[in-house]
Amino acid sequence: MKITVLDKPSFTVGDINLENLDKLGEVSYYGILPRNEVIKACYNATAVICNKTLFDKEMIESLPNLKYIGVTATGYNNVDLSFAKERGIVVANVPGYSTVDVAQHVFAFILHHSNKVDVYDNSVKNGDWLKSITFCYFDYPLCELSGKTLGIFGYGDIGKQVAKIGDAFGMKVLVHTRTIPTNCPYSLVDRETLFKESDYLTIHCPLNQQTKGLINENTLSLMKKSAVLINTSRGPVVDEKALRYALDNKVIAHAYLDVLAVEPMQKDCPLIGAKNLTLTPHIAWAPTESRQRLMDIVASNVQAFIDGKPQNVVNK
User: Fold this and answer.
1) In the chain, how many domains are there?
2) How far is the C-alpha of 76 from the C-alpha of 81, rounded, in Å?
3) Residues 170, 265 share a domain
4) Of 176, 234, 254, 291, which one is the catalytic site residue?
5) 6: which of 50, 87, 92, 267 fits an S-S bond (Cβ 3.0–4.6 Å)?
């Protein structure tokens, strides 16, 4: 079987093992290609593996041999699922591979804010400890997490993992979710309560018409001035112009974002130069172990398709 793998730099810099995929057929790897080059690269392929490359109706129609699209991610909004189904093309994703990693990144953000390790490290390196008249100094306020309120918007696998970690820190965990969970050990609250009471508010919902622009002028105005916003879900959940205003005018204390509305960041991004903002380049999912797990599951999905028992299918 001919397998074309696109977007290779989005999952490896040569640091993970791809042999499980390589043994499944004649595999060709490509970087980030322009649209016309994608068609050339995939024209003879039975299976295509991609991350963000757009497989809309026009693209799918251009590939006569295509029978399988494997997405190297949990999200699959880059594929026209209904048309792929109409053409008899199986589309599979990789759920759950980065749950612990995204939750870990959330708490890297939270601890960055509460403990200011980098701020104090820079202070010491700048000679401030050498000048201190006492054995320590508190120029940059610290805070303990125990007793603080952790608000979680969305209670899927990642939201649940974040809640567990927050609970271990002694935080008061509040949850708002569309589908009411059974046996949830944490307080379930409405949206307004979540925004009003959270000291740290972290977003873990899918992007859809209901959540696009969830973080906006109105919801930001509900939050405490001391509150911290965290988004590791999808960029368009945040109205970036509204957030820029809120940060520059101290409506909230700080925001930590791992995602933007347009990625990679563009020169006209409203958040460039914003005060009280920490950004990482969509890496919450990306520890080496997570990326290895991702590609092992991608290979497993292809093997299941070859065996006639496709798994993780998102267009049944």
Assistant:
1) 2
2) 9
3) yes
4) 234
5) 50
